[in-house]
Amino acid sequence: MAVQRAPVATYVARLRRTRSDATPSEIITVLEKQYLRTVTGTGAAVGGVAAAPGVGTLAALALGGGESAAFLEATALFALAVAEVHGIRIEDRERRRTLLLAVVLGDHASKLVQRTIRRESRHWGYLLPAAIPLTSISALNRTLIMWFLRRYARKQGLLMVGKIAPFGIGAAVGAKGNRVLGRQVTHNCREVFGPAPVSFANPAMS
Question: In angstroms, rounded to a whole number, what is the distance separating the alpha carbons of residues 127 and 120?
Fold first, then answer.
């Protein structure tokens, strides 16, 4: 959550320069593919450590916490990059936390946001920068964090059991499990922000 907007904006601008004819929708597709490659690779790497004789399982368990943090960091950067493509700039840390928790938790989290802000639309991402009062955001985050600790920790715990399987099985489980979680995130992100804009609001930075 501490990452500033500038690196995210620079990253998106670089993608736009390398694909000068790409539409916002196409840039989001590129972001999704890069994100899925990243989280799939980290899952496979931790699972692969378990295949090393003698120290594999212990090492994989030790790396598990760091890999979960890396998954969340990649998810935060991905969500902020998609927001940037939509022309939505989320500077406040608490508002960024709402976005991260919502794209990880999915439909139930989005429905809670909708009830909190009393809006029916699924695509509430454009309201995050300023339209939702910070007092509402803080209260919302307290509930979302409790949900996150229950649901995400359980999913990661079950996935970690598969990742430490020997004979290379853990690498396959880690890659597939993270890819499934990653696909849920990309779907949730599309729900939060809605369809991509037809064109970019600003020219790409040179």
Answer: 12
